């Protein structure tokens, strides 16, 4: 083979699959490559709050988390319903951690409330520094969730966050892989500063991904040191023993956050906790039941194929029995929506599975899907983006996926969902799906 034939063969091998992939997407859209990591510097004083973010705790409280470089700042939050007028305050606690030669700043956690629903509160952390504000979620439906996984801190992340914020959502749900610090602890601080303008304004509820583990043999065998210190979630309030899995109720929705990177077999604490948690769900109070986890149980992308399989085998039956409406996963850097499924088959009483691991991380997109597409996979596309789940009432919700396009966010997929709690047949039938069920419903 002469030199030019060899070069043209290489070019064909490299470009042909990409041309094929692009031809499957919408004709007007050209898929974008990864973009560089953004390092977000610290501009405030040593005692001022940085990396401010909030999360829901119980029915009417919010946890405010922030970091100060200065060690002797009070863990106090002053707050009120008018800008600059703080008629309430609450004290909390602070901690710090070491990871090899890195020492974190002081990490403050303060629970504030009781708070009124659908209300804007203004607040200040540590008695000085800038004022922040957030809006509490509604106490009843409708509610709007933003869903974004595998966020990272690149220029794509910034673009995704701008698009998410333009939607005026109530609560953000993140199915794992936050900072992509991967043991480089200053990147946790940089990530906290990047997301602060968004995470200080709306509750962010997260669960862990593989990039949060940061284990190291002998020295840090159990991992999650930075994640647990910086992103505490309301696990105690939901009877969980671990920050790696928990649940909460918000406006007619019970949200279960599972841990793909802790034990999940039938003897595990997580399994027993999930069994007890699902048994307590009252669909008259929370007609919607959604689950988030990191490694998808259903995935037709070639990336991370089968990685969620052992967890699926351990827990899928429980989720079907509880009539979970939707399972959101991350990990695979692409978008994929399945029909209602159970045990690898379409099942009208199983959850819809959605992979939404396309927040904008530095590793880029997972471009290759298996061919032909399995019949249970209804839409799949490797593009950066985010999802929106608008739960309108007890029976109907609208799910949409918004692909990032340079300055706009383009809705590329949407579907109306009916809650399984409104399906008489699904609420009545036994755990095991009958062969005739699909025909019946
Ligand atoms: Fe991941």
Automatic annotation (TrEMBL):
Residues 145-335 form the Calcineurin-like phosphoesterase domain. Residues 350-410 form the Purple acid phosphatase C-terminal domain. GO terms for molecular function: acid phosphatase activity; metal ion binding. Its EC number is 3.1.3.2. It catalyses: a phosphate monoester + H2O = an alcohol + phosphate. InterPro entries: Calcineurin-like_PHP, FN3_dom, Metallo-depent_PP-like, MPP_PAP, PAPs-like, PAPs_C, PAPs_N, Purple_acid_Pase-like_N. Its cofactor is Fe cation; Zn(2+). It comes from the Eukaryota. The keyword Glycoprotein applies. Residues 1-25 form the signal peptide. Keywords: Glycoprotein, Hydrolase, Signal, Zinc. Residues 49-136 form the Purple acid phosphatase N-terminal domain. Belongs to the metallophosphoesterase superfamily. Purple acid phosphatase family. PANTHER family: ACID PHOSPHATASE RELATED, PURPLE ACID PHOSPHATASE 22. This is Purple acid phosphatase.
């Amino acid at each position: 083979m002469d030199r030019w034939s060899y070069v043209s063969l290489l070019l064909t091998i490299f470009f042909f699959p990409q041309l094929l992939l692009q031809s499957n997407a919408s004709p007007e859209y050209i898929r974008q490559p990864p973009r560089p990591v953004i390092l977000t510097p610290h501009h405030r004083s040593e005692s001022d709050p940085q990396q401010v973010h909030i999360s829901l705790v119980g029915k009417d409280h919010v946890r405010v988390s922030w970091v100060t470089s200065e060690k002797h700042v009070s863990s106090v939050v002053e707050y009120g319903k008018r800008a600059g007028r703080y008629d309430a305050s609450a004290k909390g606690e602070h901690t710090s951690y070491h990871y090899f030669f890195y020492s974190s700043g002081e990490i403050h956690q303060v629970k504030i409330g009781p708070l009124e629903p659908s209300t804007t509160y203004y607040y200040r952390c540590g008695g000085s520094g800038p004022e922040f504000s957030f809006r509490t979620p509604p106490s009843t439906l409708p509610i709007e969730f933003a869903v974004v996984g595998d966020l990272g801190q690149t220029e794509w992340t910034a673009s995704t966050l701008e698009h998410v914020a333009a939607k005026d959502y109530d609560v953000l749900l993140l199915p794992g892989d936050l900072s992509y610090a991967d043991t480089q602890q200053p990147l946790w601080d940089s990530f906290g500063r990047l997301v602060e303008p968004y995470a200080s304004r709306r509750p962010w509820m997260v669960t862990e991904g593989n990039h949060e583990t940061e284990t190291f043999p002998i020295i840090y065998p159990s991992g999650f040191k930075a994640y647990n210190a910086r992103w505490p979630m309301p696990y105690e309030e939901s009877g969980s023993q671990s920050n790696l899995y928990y649940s909460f109720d918000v406006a007619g929705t019970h949200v279960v956050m599972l841990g793909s990177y802790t034990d999940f077999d039938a003897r595990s604490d997580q399994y027993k906790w999930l069994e007890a948690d699902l048994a307590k769900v009252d669909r008259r109070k929370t007609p919607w039941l959604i689950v988030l986890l990191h490694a998808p149980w259903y995935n037709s992308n070639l990336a991370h194929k089968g990685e969620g399989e052992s967890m699926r085998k351990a827990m899928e039956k429980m989720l079907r029995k509880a009539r979970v409406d939707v399972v959101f996963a991350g990990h695979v850097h692409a978008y994929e929506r399945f029909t209602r499924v159970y045990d690898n088959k379409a099942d009208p009483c199983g959850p819809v599975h959605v992979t939404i691991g396309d927040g904008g991380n530095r590793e880029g997109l997972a471009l290759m899907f298996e061919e032909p597409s399995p019949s249970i996979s209804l839409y799949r596309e490797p593009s950066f983006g985010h999802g929106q789940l608008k739960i309108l009432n007890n029976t109907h919700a609208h799910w949409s996926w918004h692909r990032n396009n340079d300055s706009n966010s383009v809705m590329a997929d949407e579907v109306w969902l009916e809650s399984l709690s409104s399906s008489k047949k699904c609420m009545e039938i036994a755990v095991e799906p009958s062969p005739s069920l699909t025909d019946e419903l």
